Structure prediction request, 990 residues.
Amino acid sequence: MATESAPSLTERIAAPDVVRDLLTNPKAVVGLAILVPVVAVSALGPMLAPYDPVAVHPADAYLGPLSSGPNGMYLLGTDHLGRDLLSRIIVGSRPSLLLGFGATGLSLLLGVPIGLTAGYSKGRVDELLMRLMDIMMSVPVLLLGVLILVVLPSSLFNIVLAIGVVFVPRIARVTRSATLSVSEEPYVLAAKARGESDPYILFREILPNVTAPIVVEGSIRIGYAVMVGTSLSFLGLGTGPPHPDWGFMINTARLHIYSTPWFLLWPSIALLATIMATNLLGDGLRDVLDPRAIEDGDGL
Amino acid sequence: MSRQRTRPADAAEADVLLDVDSVSVEFSVPDGTVEALRDVSVRVEKGETLGIAGESGSGKSTLALAIVRYLASNGHITDGSISFKGRDLYALSKGELRTIRGNEVAHVAQNPASALNPSMVIGEQIKETIDLHQDPESDEAAWDQVYEVLRQVNIPHPEYLADRYPSELSGGQQQRALIAIGLSCNPDLLILDEPTTGLDVTTQAKLLDLVRELKHDYDVGILLITHNLAVIAKIADRVNILYAGEVMEKGPVEEVFTNPANPYTQALLATTPELDREKDLRPIPGQIPGLTAIPDGCIFADRCDFATDECRAGSIPMETPTDDRETRCIRWEAATADPIAAGAATERHYDPGDVILEASDLEKHYDTATFLQNLVGGHEPVRAVDGVDLSIREGETVGLVGESGCGKSTLGRTLLHLHEPTAGSVSYRGTDVAEMSRRERREFRSECQIIQQDPEGSLNPRKRIRSIVERPLELFTDLDEAGREERVHELLDQVNLSHDLAANFPHELSGGQQQRVAVARAFAANPSLVVLDEPVSSLDVSVQASILNLLDDLREAYDTSYLLISHDMGVIKTICDRLSVMYLGQIVESGSLDEVFTPPYHPYTRSLLSSIPSLDPHEEGSRIHLEGDVPDARDPPSGCSFCTRCPEKIGEVCETDDPALEPVGGPEGAAHQLSCHHEDDELSEEIENL
Prediction:
C-alpha cells in the first residue's frame, strides 16, 4: 500500500469550512439545536435527573404533569409506580442514543468498505458480496434482531451489535451504487494511471466523493436504530426493567394509554425529536459536504 | 450553389420574422445579478439563415430561450422587446404564446439525447406536436404527416424509424428527429441551438446540407446558434458575433469572415485551427469576464490588442463600417487597417529518437454479456480495438484520429495498460508491459501519463489544486515537503496558473484552468510519453489554442512524446508529426502529416477530410457523403471494415478480404501506409477544399 503522508496543509484548512458552512445551514442548525442538548443531557444523565429514576414512590403514583405529591414536585408527572417520568426520560436517553450512534457506527464501519469494494471491483467480487447482502436483507430487520438476541445474552452491547449487523447491507448497497458511478470518473482513471494502490483509490479518491449519500443514509439509520432498539426493548428484549429506556417506557405506558396518556407522550416526543434531529442534521451535512452542490443549484 | 444574401436595409418590413430589439436579460443569483445579455438586437428575415456565434458564456443559448419565453425562473428581460411577425412576444397571453411556440416558432434544443423523451417512440413524439397544433382530421392523417416530416429530414424508412425509441437511433438520426419535431408544423422560424455539437464531422456535413435544403425548399427563417465558426461559414447568410452578452459584430458572413471589423472577431478567427491553411494558432489572452459586475466601456477591452483608455469608459456604441455591417468597436478603423491574424506556421522540426512505446497486434474486446447471456452463450464481444500496430518514438507527436466509437480512446488506455489487452502486446522501451516487475511497472507509470478530455472530471473534486499536482511528486520522487511545494509552484508557473489557485478546489476554476492543472499533474514526474485523450475538445476555441500551444511548448521543454487522440483534424494538424486514422477498431491509414493530408487517400480519410467545413465562406468543397452509420463493433463487416459505407467500394473483394495496412508505393514507401484494395493511383484524386 502507498505510504500515506500526514494530512497536508490543505486538508487542515478544510475542516473549519465544514463547521462554518454547517452553522449557516438552516436544516443543520435546527438538527444540532435539538441533538446537542439531547446528547448533553444523556451524557450528564443521573447528575441532571431530579429523582432516582428507579426509586418507587407508591404514594406519588399516577401524578399528572406539574403536580406535587407527598415526596415532592414532578415536572412531567409520575408513572404507575410513582417513578419520576422526567428522570426516567433523562436517564433512559443514554441507552437509546448509544444504540443509535453505536449501531450506525458499526454498520458504517462494516458496510462502507464492503460497498466500496463491491462497486469498484465489479464482476464476481461484486456479485458475491451483494448476493450475501441480499440474503441478509431478505430477513426482516426486527426478526433478525430478535434472532441474534435469542442467541446472545441481552445486553446493550449485544443489541448494538445486532442492530449494527442488521444495517450493514443497507449501508453497503448505498455505498456500492454511489461507488459504481464515481469509479467511472476520469480522476479515478487518472489515479490508476499514476499507479496508485487499490486502497488509496478506494479510500482517498472514491470515498470522499461518495460521502454524501452515505452520510444521509447513516443519519437516517441513527433514527432507525433508535427505533429498532426501542422496538426490541418494547418486545422485552432490551436491557430490561427496572433500568429506564424509552422503548420499555413506551411498552409500559401502553397499558395506561387511556387513563394517563402522558406516560406514552413524553418518551414518544423524546424519540421523535431525536430521530427528526438526526435526519435534519444528515440533510444539512449532505448540502455542506458537497462543494459543488450550491453552485450547481443556482439555476444558471 | 449560390446563396442569396438579403440586406436588412432593402428588406420589406413584412419579411422580418423575428425582431429582437436591444434586449437585456438578467438572472438573479445568490451573489447578485448576472447580466447575461446586454443591448442585443437580432433580426431574422424570411428565408434567411442568421448565425449567432459565440463561445460558452456568451449568452447565445440565453438569447434562444428568451425568444421562446423559456428563460429559467430566475431570469427576466429588463429592457428591449422581442417581436415575432410584428407581435410582441412578451405581451402575449399564455394561450397565444402556446399557439406560436412549436407552431410558428420551433426551438430545437441542444443535445438530442436528452431533448427526446427516452420512453416514447420517435413517431409519437412528432405526432404529439402535430396533434397539439394542427388538429389533424384523423389519426392516419397525423401519422402520414409524421412520415412526411421524417422524410423531409432525410430519415430513411420513416415508417420503421417512427416506431423506434430514441436510444435505438444514432446521434445524427436523433438530431434529425428533433429537427423533424421542429418542422412538423411548418414553422416560419426555426431556432437551432448547437445542432451539430456532439456529432461526428461526417454526420455534421450531412446535417448542414439538410439545414441548407430546408431553408431553400421551405423558405423558413433559421436562427442558427453555434460555437463553431466553420458551421456558420458554411450555411449562414448573415452572422452576429456574440461575446459576454453583447453583439460585437454583425453583417453578411462573407464580409465578416473575410474582413472582420471587430478585434474579437479577428482574434476568434485567428485562434481557430483550419485544415486548409498553415497557421500558428494565436490564443486570445485572458478569459471571458464574469457578468455579475459589468465594467464601464468595452467588455472585450481587457483582452484586446487595440484597446486604449477611451475603450474603458462610457458605453460603446455600434459603429457602422458599411451599410449592412455593424461593429461594437470605436477603434474598428485601426482594427481593420492592421487586423489581428494568426502568424505564419513555424516549421516543425522533427527528429524522432528511439521507440518508446510499441503496440503489436493489440486487441481489446469488451464482453458486454450479462450473467444470463453468458449461460446461454453465443454472445459477441465489442471489438473496440481490433489488431492495431502502433509505435511512438522519442520526441514525436503522433496523432490518432477517428470518429466517435472508433476505439481511439480505448486504444489510448490499452496502450497505457489501464485496460488489460485482450490479445497482442504493448512494450515500453523494449520490455513487455504485461511482464514487468513491480519496480518496472512503477517506472512505466511514472514515465507514461494521460491527460483526459473532461478537465473537471479528471480532477478529484474533493482535493485542492495543490494536493492534486503534488500527488505524483509524492509517488514518484524523493522530494521532501518543501521541495514538493517548490516544484508545485514551478509547475503552476509553467502552465501559466497563478500560485493563489493552489488552495482552490477544481470547481472554482474555469475549464481552461482545470485543463492546465491536469497538464501540470501529468508533467510533475517528468514523463517521457503523455497520452492526450481529446485534450481540448471540451474547451472553447480561444482556450483551445492556448492549451495546444502550451502542450507544444512543454513537449520541447521536457522532450516528451505525445499520442494525441482527437476527432478534430484541425487540432491534429496543429501539433502532430505523424498521424494514424482509425476506423472501427483498426488503423486504415498512417503516415506523416503531409503524407496523410495529400493523395493517395484511404477512402475513409478522404471522406473525413472532405466533410470538414472551412472557415472560408466562399469555399464550396464537394463533400463525400458517407452512407449509413458506423457498423456495430459487436458484428463488424467481414472483409474491409469500411466496406459498408465506402463510396469507392470495388465489389465482392471488399466484402470478403480484409486489406492489410501496406506501404504506399511498394515496400520502400515504408512510412505512409494504407489499407485498401484499390491501387494507390486510383486513390490519388485531389480533395478540392484542401
Q: What stands out?
A: The CA atoms of residues 27 and 88 of chain A lie 29 Å apart. Chain A touches chain B through 30 residues (CB under 8 Å). Residues 85-121 of chain A form the longest helix (37 residues).
